[in-house]
């Protein structure tokens, strides 16, 4: 009995140490941090789309004009590739949030507290899909600059982003 009492005291001490280390910040802080990270990423992506649009609408064929707009044909594929990479990163954030929501729903069956409101998650998906289509539209409009090899790969990546969002 003495051995059991000693082991119990050790385990309770370890449990307290783990709880102290892992739960020093409230869950609402982590959720708010995640929301801010998504919001900043989405705004950055929207800015990229506007940059691509401005580069495409600029004086491309008129030689090096203001801000080096004459370099647009070389810059445009790079900008679009960076934007697609950011789109995929934001998609991963949304998919992670969906997975967390699904897990919380499963745990609710065991009596855990569950926030059933899907509106924030739906808003994230809608915002992401809206930016997705804007970016895809810009890529299609810039098909001449992207070339016959890059455009199909980009379209495949766009398709993968959309299908993974729909499937999950």
From TrEMBL:
One of the GO BP terms on file: signal transduction
Keywords: SH2 domain
GO molecular function: DNA-binding transcription factor activity
The keyword Hydrolase is assigned to this record: no
UniProt keyword Endoplasmic reticulum present: no
Start and end residues of each STAT transcription factor all-alpha domain: 82-140
Protein name: STAT6 protein
Lineage of source species: Eukaryota, Metazoa, Chordata, Craniata, Vertebrata
């Amino acid at each position: 009995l003495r051995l059991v009492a000693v082991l119990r005291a050790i385990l309770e001490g370890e449990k307290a140490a783990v709880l102290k280390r892992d739960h020093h910040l409230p869950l609402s802080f982590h959720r708010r941090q995640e929301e801010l990270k998504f919001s900043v990423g989405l705004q950055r992506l929207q800015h990229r789309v506007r940059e691509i649009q401005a580069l495409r609408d600029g004086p491309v064929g008129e030689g090096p004009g203001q801000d080096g707009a004459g370099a647009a044909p070389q810059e445009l594929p790079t900008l679009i590739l960076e934007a697609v990479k950011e789109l995929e990163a934001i998609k991963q954030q949304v998919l992670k949030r969906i997975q967390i929501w699904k897990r919380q729903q499963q745990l609710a069956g065991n009596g855990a507290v569950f926030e059933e409101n899907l509106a924030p998650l739906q808003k994230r998906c809608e915002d992401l899909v809206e930016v997705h289509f804007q970016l895809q539209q810009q890529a299609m409009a810039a098909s001449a600059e992207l070339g016959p090899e890059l455009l199909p790969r980009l379209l495949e990546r766009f398709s993968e982003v959309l299908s993974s969002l729909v499937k999950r």
